[in-house]
Structures are given as structure tokens and as C-alpha cells.
Amino acid sequence: MLVTLEGLDGSGKTTVWERLRADDAVPPDAVFTREPTDSWYGDAVQRSIDDDDADSLAELFLYTADHAAHLSDTVRPALSEDRLVVSDRYSDSRFAYQGATLASSDRFDDPLQFVREVHAPWTRPPDRTVYLDVDPETAARRSGATNKFETAEYLADVRDNYERLIRDDPERFVRVDATADPDTVYERVRAVLE
Ligand SMILES: Nc1ncnc2c1ncn2[C@@H]1O[C@H](COP(=O)(O)OP(=O)(O)OP(=O)(O)O)[C@@H](O)[C@H]1O
Ligand SMILES: Cc1cn([C@H]2C[C@H](O)[C@@H](COP(=O)(O)O)O2)c(=O)[nH]c1=O
Fold this sequence. Notes:
By secondary structure, this protein is α/β, with parallel strands linked by helices. The protein is built from 8 helices and 5 strands, in the order E-H-E-H-H-E-H-H-E-H-H-E-H.
């Protein structure tokens, strides 16, 4: 089973992911993974994150290349062994973030849909996605605005895209109010996964 954690920067995904990894109730052979990955593809993504002038379409394909390698190196092998996979960010991050970034150019009528179509023929959709819901101001404050994506203005567009993804696939997404304290948020996520 493939479970993904999604949400704005600073919504608390990594905090939850680390606590799950340390939780004795989680199967010991579960695979904890993330995007961007720590491979050289992920390093290329990191360079693009650090470049304020990166071309938005080129950036989409860097993230997408990292996803393709992540699928073949990690996700598909683990799923073929019937292991639980928990990924801190996955394809919905691309749909929401690059959907928002590409909207600032006029290259596509519906950038989010374009990004979905780029993935559709070959990706492996998650079975369940926990969406950690925080407002853009909280997200920007918690994340410390350390990269070009972490502004409340941009994150408001990203949040709109996540809302559209949830509307389009309500069975897969579980929304968790992530504005509460970390212990409460963790218990909420744990209850969902149980
Ligand atoms: N529920 C919470 N309440 C308050 N602060 C939190 C909460 N969860 C996490 N934090 C803090 O917010 C910051 C960001 O948390 P975390 O790295 O888990 O978020 P993230 O969603 O993984 O962010 P990013 O996508 O930017 O990596 C950290 O300083 C963390 O300690
Ligand atoms: C996977 C993915 C990520 N992003 C953005 C979101 C963050 O601002 C950075 C790095 O992610 P992290 O969780 O803070 O390590 O990259 C994105 O725009 N598109 C994606 O597909």
C-alpha cells in the first residue's frame, strides 16, 4: 500500500513522517521515503529550487525525472513485495506546486491538468493521501521562508490546487487539520492510518 503525506511547506509532513517511522505500531518492513529524493536527480531538483530564475517548465521536468527514478528505484520494488510505503511528498506536490508555478506563464490553459497528463501514462497513484491542512500564512511562518516557494502568496495558489485535487479524488484524500499542536496532529494522522 502506498500512503503519501501532502500539504504546504511547513504543514508538518516531515514531523509526522519521522514520528510514524519511529512508531512501533507501523510494520517493521515499511519503507519511508520522500520527494525530492536524496539521489542525484534530487540534487538537480535542489539546484533548481535554489535558482530564483529557473525555467518553470524545465523545473517541472526535473521534479518529474526525480519521481520516475523514485518509482523504479524505491516505490515499485517495495510495493511488489507487499510492503507499506510512506512517502513525504509525491506526485500531488507536482500537480499543486508546478501547477501554480506554470500558471504565472501563459504557456498552458490548465497547468495543473497538463502536469497530471504528463504523469498519467506511467506513474503509480497513491492508495491514500493524508493532506495536512494549514493556511498559507501559518505555512510560510513555520517553514521560515527559506526558499522561493515559501511565501504566503504563492502558497495560497498551491493550496487552491490541493483543494482542486481533493475535490477530484475525495476517496483517496483524507484531510487533517494541521494547525493544532504536533502531538494532536500526529494522533489524528495515526487514527486515519489505523
Ligand atoms: N503541528 C505543528 N505545530 C507547530 N509547529 C509545527 C507543527 N508541526 C511541525 N511544526 C514545526 O514547523 C516546522 C516545519 O515542520 P516540518 O518540517 O515537519 O514541515 P513540512 O511540511 O515537512 O515542511 P516542508 O515541506 O517545508 O519540508 C518545524 O520547525 C516543525 O517543528
Ligand atoms: C516534491 C515536490 C516539491 N516541491 C517543492 C516543495 C518545497 O518547497 C520544495 C522541497 O520540498 P521539501 O518538502 O521542503 O523538502 O520543493 C515542488 O515544487 N514540487 C514537487 O514535486
